[in-house]
Amino acid sequence: MATLDMSTILLEAYQLADEINESQEVKEYLKAKENLDNDPEAQKMIQEFYKANDRFEEAKRFGNFHPDYKKAKEQALALEKKIHEYPSVHAYLEAEKRLDQLLHQVSLIIARSVSKSVKVPGND
């Protein structure tokens, strides 16, 4: 078996990346991202969540002693749940999860072909 040099390996990695970019998972992810980015209601909810989450993070610094801790936490959690259920956000998160699973599987295959002990970042 011939030994490959680094440039050959990198070239093949770029070719694999090109093939992944042609996959259904990437196409669905990009479409879902575009739909989300162009959904004014979703963007408004996301901004509201960021503001609520900032209030919660500020309150969290003081823990239960902060007068608005419980209220800020409940608001952030409620908005997060509402956002995740919104159609364009839900579609985006599902497409992102499928793409992440594909990329994780590719990483796992490559790593395991080298050694069972090579660490592969989790896809959680």
From TrEMBL:
Protein origin, superkingdom: Bacteria
A Pfam family per the record: Com_YlbF
Record InterPro entries: Bact_com_dev_regulator (IPR052767), Com_YlbF (IPR010368), YheA/YmcA-like_dom_sf (IPR023378)
Family matches, as Gene3D superfamilies: YheA/YmcA-like
Record-given protein name: YlbF family regulator
